[in-house]
Amino acid sequence: MSEKPDQESKTEEATEKKIRDSLDKGQVPHSREATTLASMLAILIAVVFLLTDNVVKLRFSLESFIDHPGSFNIGTGADASAILFVVAIEMAKVVGPVLLVLAIAGVAASFLQNQPQFVVDRIEPKLERISIARGWSRIFGVQGQVEFLKSLFKLSIVTIAGYIALGKSYREFFNALFMEPAALPGLMQDLSIQFLSAIVVATAVLVGADLAWSRFSWRKELRMTKQEVKDEHKQVEGDPLIKMRLRSLQRDRSRRRMIASVPKATLIVANPTHYSVALRYVREEGGAPIVVAKGKDLIALKIRFIGEQNGIPIYEDRALARSLYASVEVDKMIPPEFYKAVAGVILFLAQRGQQARPAV
Fold first, then answer.
1. Which residues in the chain are classed under CATH 3.40.1690.10?
2. Dist CA 334 CA 321 (whole Å)
3. What pLDDT does residue 278 have?
4. What is the pLDDT of residue 157?
């Protein structure tokens, strides 16, 4: 079993076919950090537009549980279930919109990076996915090192963002102990917006770098060796030796069909030994004379031999034979510029008493 070529030997850029096959298998450049950024943006939007008002509404809805606990009859399990159902509905009004925004952001992050597609190959069980050696290389290889640096960067920006955003507000934390409860949601919203905004900005920088890296590493992984490029070219275009052999067979078949048509000719124009052109001219069929066969050297001699066997008149004219051979394809009528010369040949044969052979 041959080993796969190492990365250093892959010096050629991936061909369009290699890229297309990779996309069909679901191997596409993807940045996980883009999904993280989308999630952080979704949380920031939820904090700015949804959470504060919804939390206030939830407080008003649930404050009766705290202020008037005796007003609820919990005599049976059905009563308890009904109360829990009401609480769940109120909680869903708060959490539901946030989860919806998060889901939309996550889907949008994937859609904007690559076109969605269903790939069976991605879910097929493969032994290499549980290989210890491959897992070790993923963890301690270049990709693993990049992932470690990204995680370290994310931890750093969260720490720095938290310090910058919340470090200046430590006095407000102490003052919150003496604030009215109704003012706490607004304070928490302001602090959350500062913290999340700093994280979003830093994550956006990370995403830009990660998108560039993911596409670079994807292209690098798809690189091919010179031999792989040659093999793929053979698969797409066909092996040159096979194509040459096919063309040779086609020429042989065409030549045999042409030789078989010589007996249908009514006269042959020849250049003693090098060129022969077999013509068919029957007045009743209409139209100009047709070249039924032509050839040079051995094929020309073969045409003359068949013509002599079938009693076809042979007229030797070096210039006319060469011109007809070079200008007219087999099974085509001669062009007008040859009408006068060929008509002269037919007339000459008639005057010598060598009428063109009757049509077969």
1. 250-351
2. 12
3. 92
4. 73
